[in-house]
DNA sequence: CAAACGTGGAT
DNA sequence: TATCCAAGTTT
């Protein structure tokens, strides 16, 4: 009974109606949301909890309602507006992508998977997500939520492997409903199920619409026995130093001298972090010191 | 392919 | 307090 075509269709039905009743009313999901708004939401959501991007998204879209508006401002403004969302290269990428949209796509978000994928900061996931949510292209959207949902429902495993495998891509593709509209709804609905019910830490199997169809659940929710995801530390890393330096430069009114960073860490670590930030284009060295790119 | 890349809330 | 985890991408 498990993982047959009939099983999948039953799961589709239940998850789609669950989403219709319980999906969140996020601003980029509303009918009036533009491809640009959806694009910005996807970049902001990379490795970042949805709750944390809500405010910044509203601010961002009000200030830069379309790609041309953002492209008209210097990258420094995008980096400042990004504030503490993390991975500030995403702000730089967003600005560069807006510039590319103006230059190559008539100021619009391209409605094509390959053209999306060619934009800076857009990988396999984001291209599929923007394609599906903004343009109705029924590409499999395989994010961390979908991976976990499929691992449990279809494979009977508590969690997905540490990194996306070809087997998982194939599985996600096989699970796509044949009808394009259903496929696009399945993308957002299965992601939402993973975000709200089929969560990593304490899954809400008691309220899950497909608990009785879940291979993992039916097997008694066995513990994960595969390889663990490598632990990503932060304290003592260059990332920590880079973050502290960027915070100082963001909040300064003018270029700051290197001396402004001395309290952040040991001199050699500061030197390495600054060099990296300059190489990444997040920092610029002028006569007066370091500032954001213009 | 492994490792780098920010930040903060939850357990 | 320590670790985990969050709509990934790039090199």
Automatic annotation (TrEMBL):
Q: Do the record's keywords include Iron? A: yes
Record keywords: Transmembrane included?
A: no
Annotated GO biological process: base-excision repair; mismatch repair
Domain HhH-GPD positions: 44-196
- Name of the molecule in the record: Adenine DNA glycosylase
List the keywords (alphabetical).
4Fe-4S, DNA damage, DNA repair, Glycosidase, Hydrolase, Iron, Iron-sulfur, Metal-binding
Give the matching PANTHER family.
Answer: ADENINE DNA GLYCOSYLASE
Source organism, top-level taxon: Bacteria
- This entry's Enzyme Commission designation comes to 3.2.2.31
- GO molecular function term, any single one: adenine/guanine mispair binding
Q: What family name appears in the similarity comment?
A: Belongs to the Nth/MutY family.
Pfam families registered for this protein in UniProt: EndIII_4Fe-2S (PF10576), HHH (PF00633), HhH-GPD (PF00730)
> Reaction(s) catalyzed by this protein?
Hydrolyzes free adenine bases from 7,8-dihydro-8-oxoguanine:adenine mismatched double-stranded DNA, leaving an apurinic site
Cofactor(s) in the UniProt record = [4Fe-4S] cluster
Organism this protein belongs to: Nostocoides jenkinsii Ben 74
Entry's Gene3D superfamilies? Helix-hairpin-Helix base-excision DNA repair enzymes (C-terminal), Hypothetical protein, domain 2
